[in-house]
Structures are given as structure tokens and as C-alpha cells.
Amino acid sequence: MTDSIKIISIATLIILFFFCFQAGIFLFSGNRKKINGRRTLIFVEFFTAFLLLFDALAYYYRGNTSLTGYYMVRLCNFFVFICNFSLPFFICFYVCEFINQSNLTFSIIFHPVKSVRKGIPRQLFIVFFLCFTGIVLTIYSQFTDLLYYFDDNNLYHRSAFYSLSVVLGLLPGLISFTMLIQNKKKLSSNIFISLLVYFILLLVGVIFILIIYGLPCINISLGLGSLHLFYSSIKLIEIEFFAMDSGTLAVSPACKPEIAVTESRKRLVRSHLWQTLSITLGGILLVLLIISITGVTLPEKSLVIDQPYSENDFSKSVCVTFIRNADKHWIDEEDPDRTGAQYDGMIYNNMKSTIITDWEFSVSVPETSTVDPGPWNGTFRLVDGNLIVKKPHEEDAENIHGVDFYTITPLKNLGFGCIMYTPHNYHPLEQKILFTYSSILKPLTNTLFDIFLGLLFVIFIIATTIMLFEGKLIRVEEENRKLENTVKERTKELEEEKNRSERLLLNILPKEIARELTAHPDRTIAKEYPNVTVLFTDIVGFTKISGEMNAEEIVTMLNKMFSMFDERAQKEGIEKIKTIGDAYMAASGLTEDPYNEGALKMLRFAKGLLSDVQAFNDNSPVKLLIRLGINSGPVVAGVIGKTKFIYDIWGDTVNVASRMESTGIPMKIHVTENTKAQTLSYYQYSQNTEIDVKGKGMMKTYFL
After folding, report:
1. Cα(220)–Cα(228) distance, rounded to whole angstroms?
2. 544-570 pLDDT tens trace
3. Mean pLDDT over residues 231-259, rounded?
4. Distance of CA 461 to the CA centre of its chain
5. Handedness of CA 407, 413, 417, 423 (dihedral sign)
6. Mean predicted confidence (pLDDT) in 153-182
7. With CB atoms counted within 10 Å of each terminal CB, which end of the chain scores lower, N or C?
């Protein structure tokens, strides 16, 4: 890591730490005043702030070999990993609070079955298990270098299983993301987008840290995401301020849960399972593909070879030979006690999936030895009785073929050599060799990894296909339910409209006539009834009264009175026939039974009309009087017209009833002898009065 990258990383982390810590303090100060939905966000802000602070300190003390630097680097990296595994749990918990629309307590983690029954998403408990596993592995790594290690210069290095920590950190985010998508309908759009942006920032950070080594990409993305959640929560704080007296939790608008049948609910659970599996596998595949491209940096290894090899030993992952060329040696002319010779070294990489990226070779030599200044494929030095050979780096003068030339790819070898002058009795095969190398694992070159990756890909395709299929079925079922609901609503509306039409029709026609007209709209409806009682009534002096009133007052008066008559007719079972001006016509006994009680019902109705007129007069400045005439006998009834049809009755009975009304006395009930004969046992009548009825001659009539 260059100094400029180190300075940029520390500065970025410190700035983000300051803002996240400030956001946490701001939320914490408000949280103490009243209950709200920001408690979990406080944990998110503080844990993010501490993560950024510890990461900045780890960068600052990186490479510091003092005692303080030794402990600070280890402690800070430990807390960075702890915070990295804790944050996904708090984020998942935060999302669950929005989904459940309540302020949850952390104690639900210890009661998973009970909590799931109350509507807490199952994913929360899976995320908790993964995060807890990551924390346990981090603690274990302090003693085994499982995830990372530090070299003698106090520099941090990723271990072979570092990718496992990335996966354990990524899976909770992917699971929380699927949980967010699955419960989108329960969240308002602004809250959903706010949470979605956080996960997108996290994914970008994961991708960059696998590609770019040196920059704290994940931690920077976590800091930006936490600040984004804080600024998004400002709107909720504003809502809480204006709803302070409501006593409700202002986390999300109320959501009306959908009522689903048992089969649909099971399918939805299966769909959510396949969604989680598909997205999780997709994330794992993405990480594995990036790892396959960039490789996995393995810890530095040292081989101590007490009995040097003269040829490659294929049973060893790395084999190193260093021998004196039997054909190229001579006596040193300047020093007869020394022999000059060409020494040939060979590094064999017998690993199938690992590239040796850097290496250092060391072998003991006598103190009087010297090295010719023209060695090849390495930088050669004599230090304290040892020949040190290192891989040429970019800044070295020996780097004449390019740095990549000196890396050793799988199942390949690299030769190096030099001219060295040593005492005659020096034999390199009798010396101890120390070989130190760094390497990168390229998983795609490993058959087992390829098979594993292929199986994951197949499972991913199957899960995605089933997820899409289940999702399609759910959408079809939702559409069917919507269609069924629409049909039910339309049917209900049609039923209501039908009932309104029937009620309207029954207001115009008798029930039997209405049914017959509905069943046979083209048939001519006409019937003869043997014993129908007909009533006529009109207002006495209506012409004079109406002359003293305007049109609106006249209509209002008639409407009020006739409405009272209509209500009584409906209550007494009387069939209203029609109104003509101030006249009101009604009938009873519209049945084929000649011995009906129509006359008795009509007289009861007529007496009620007199009471209605009296009640009207009590509350009206205009005092009215009515005449009533009643007659019983045979009539013909029928419906006239096709569009504006009307139900009417005809015959002498009707004409005589009309004559009874016109010759009657105000506020008296004037009846014929036929009506009297049918009701004599119920009512008392006056002495008969004879009137002249056109076409009938003199008739005896009576007053009730």
C-alpha cells in the first residue's frame, strides 16, 4: 500500500466516523425523550462509527513494529471484524421493524418459534446465526490466523479463508435484501427505496474489495449507507414531531394485510424460500467468480529443507534444488584455495491451482565466498554467511524480463543461477536451505472447485426457475382473486340495482303484476277481479288554495301530504293506483278471491288518512280538508304502455267510487251499500242518502 492510498483511506474513514458518530448522538438524544422507531438505527450508527474508527486506527498503525503498534493493529482489526459481523444483524432487525410496524425487542431472538408465529420474518433468525458464526470465527482466528494474519513487519494479510468471512458478511445482507423485496407491499415507497439503496451500496463495496486490495471499500460503503439511513430517517422524525400526541410509532404508514387462503399462503412461503435461495446463491456465485478471477491470496509459507534435493520431488507442493554444475567449475586463479563454479537452482511448483507470486531462497555458504556480478533470474546477496536469492521486483536492475516472468504458474518451474567462488570442499547438497514464498490460489484451475461451482450454478438455475414459476402462479392467483372480487362486487352492485329496480317497480305495480311483467315484458297484462275496494280522495277547495300559493309551495304541500298517504298505504297493504292533481286513488282486494277483506282494510286506511290530514294541519299554516269516497265491486286491471307504462283499473266500481268522493262531505268517509255490507259488523254507519249516479240512477250511500 502506497502512502497516498493510506492517507486517503484514513482521512475517508475518519470523516465518515465523525458524521456517523454525530448521527448516533443526535438520534440517541431524541430517543430518550419518547418512544420512537429509531432505537435500532442508533445501534447501526454507533457500530458503523466504531467500525470506521477502528479501521482508521488499523491503517494508521499498520507496519508499526513498536509494542503499541503491535497491540493496536491486532485489537483494531479484531473489532473491525466484530463490527462487520454485528452490523448486518442490526440492519436486518431494522428492516423487520418496518415490516412488522412495531418497535421490537432483542429478546425475540431467543424465542424464534413464538416470534415467527407473531409475524416476525424467519430470515431474521438465519441472519443472527450467520452473524454469530462470523463473530465466533473471528475470535477463533486470533489464535489460528484463520481469516487473517500479521507478518514480522506488523502488516495485515488475508489468509486462505478470508473469502469465508466475505461470504459470511455478504449472506446476511442478501437474505435481508430478499426479505425487503418480499415485503415491499408493506412499506411506503420512500422507505423501501431508502433501505434498498443501503443494500446496493453494500454490494458495490463487496465487489470493489474483492477486486481492489488496499482500500477499505466495504467499510466506506457501510459508512455511506448508514449516513443515508440517517438522513432518510429525518423525514420520519418530522412525522413524529407533528404526531407527538398520537402515541403511535411513526415508522411506516399502516398497511392493510391481505387475507390469503391457506394454499396461497403455503405457495407464498415456498416462493419466499426459493427467492432467498436464488438471491443467496447468486451472491455466492458472484463472490466465487470474482475470487476465481482475482485469486485468493494465501499466507506466506517457509520451507526448511535440511536435506536438499537434487531433482524434483513431485510429492511436495513446492520443491527447490540447488546444485553445482558438474561441467562448469574451475580453480580461482587469484585464490587457488577456492573453486569457481556455476550453481544452478530450480523452483518447482507442483501445485495445480496456485501461482507463486513472490519468493526468497537462502542457503548457507562459507564466509570467504563471493558471487560473480552476472547472476540470472534473481537478485543475489551474501549476508552473514548466507546466499540470499530473491525474486526480481519492478525497481530492481535484475528485472530484465518483467515481473510476471519470475512468477511460477501451476505445474511449472523457474530456474535461477549464478557464478560463485567457494572453498574446494563446499557442497550445496550438504547445506540447509530455507525457501519462503507467497502465492495466490486460482480456484478455476482446480477440478473440484469447478465441479462445486457448476453444482452451485445448476442449483441457482433451478432455484431461479422455480422462483419465477412460483411467482408467476402467485401473480395469476392474485389476478384471479382480484377478478373474483371484481365479479363479486359487480354482482353485488347488480343485485343492489336489481333490488332498487324491483322496489321501484313495486312502487308502481302490485307484486304479482310486477313479477308477471318482469317474466313476460311483451305480454299484455289485463285481469278481472271480482271484489275490489276503490278509494278516491281530493282536497276541498284546492283551486282557491293553489291560487294563493306559488308553484314551489303547491308542489311541496302536495308532496308532503301524499308522502304521508304513501307511507300509510305501504303499512296497511293498500295498493296506490295514481295521483291526478290533488286527487289520490287507491285500491285493495286486487285478488281473484271474491271474499277478501279489501273493504275492511280500505276503511281502516281511510280513517288513517283523516288522521294524517289532521297531523299535517297541526304543523302547517295552510289548513286542508279532504273528501273520501269508497266503493266495492268488480274491476278490470291492467298495464298500459311500454316505456312510461302505468297500472290502472277500470269499470263501474271505479266510476261510482269517484262519484262517492265528489258528493261526499269534507273529512267524512262516503261509502256505497256494497262496501257497507262487507264491513257492517265492524263499523257503524249513518242513515242512507240517495244520490244520482250517471248510468246507474239513484243509489243509497252511507257515511262512516
Report:
1. 12
2. 888 888 888 888 889 999 999 999 998
3. 49
4. 23
5. positive
6. 81
7. N
The CA distance from 230 to 18, in Å, is: 13
Residue 522 burial class via C-beta count within 10 angstroms: exposed 0-12, middle 13-18, buried 19 and up: exposed
Only one residue has cell 293506483, namely 577
- Please give the Cα distance from 52 to 285 (Å, whole number): 28
Which three cell numbers, joined as nine digits, stand for 517? Answer: 311483467
Phi, psi values for residue 547, rounded to 5°: -70, -20
Does residue 584 register a pLDDT over 80?
Answer: yes
Cα-atom radius of gyration of the chain, to the nearest Å? 51
All three cell numbers of 283: 451472491
Instruction: Supply the pLDDT for residue 32.
Output: 53
| Extended strands (E) in 432-492 | 433-441
DSSP 566-634: HHHHHHHT-EEEEEETTEEEEEE--SS-TT-SHHHHHHHHHHHHHHHHHHHHHT-SS---EEEEEEEEE
Vertex 665: Cα angle to 664 and 671 (nearest 5)? 45
Count of Cβ atoms closer than 10 Å to residue 10 Cβ? 18
Judged by DSSP in three states, 551 sits in helix
Instruction: Give Cα separations from 315 to 160, 301, 321 (angstroms).
Output: 22, 17, 14
Helix and strand counts by DSSP (H, E) for the chain: 16, 19
Q: How far apart are CA 349 and CA 4, in angstroms?
A: 35
Question: Does residue 178 contact residue 166 with C-beta atoms inside 8 Å?
Answer: no
Work out the angle between the directed axes of helices 123-144 and 67-100 (0-180°, nearest 10). Answer: 170
Q: What is the pLDDT of residue 243?
A: 46
Rounded to whole angstroms, the Cα distance separating 574 from 352 reads: 105
Residue with the larger pLDDT of the pair 128 and 397? 128
What are the grid coordinates assigned to 66, written together? 513498536
Which residue is it, cell 526480481? 392
Q: How far does Cα 252 stand from its chain's mean position? A: 12
Q: Which residues pair with 527 in a beta bridge?
A: 637
Q: Is 413 helix (H, G, I), strand (E, B) or coil?
A: strand
- Residue 235's identity, in one-letter code, is K
- Model pLDDT for residues 42-83, shown as the tens digit of each residue: 899 999 999 999 989 988 888 888 889 899 999 999 999 999
Instruction: Please give the mean pLDDT across all residues of the chain.
Output: 84
Is residue 460 within 8 A of residue 412, CB to CB? The reply is no
Looking at per-residue pLDDT, the higher value among 664 and 522 belongs to 664
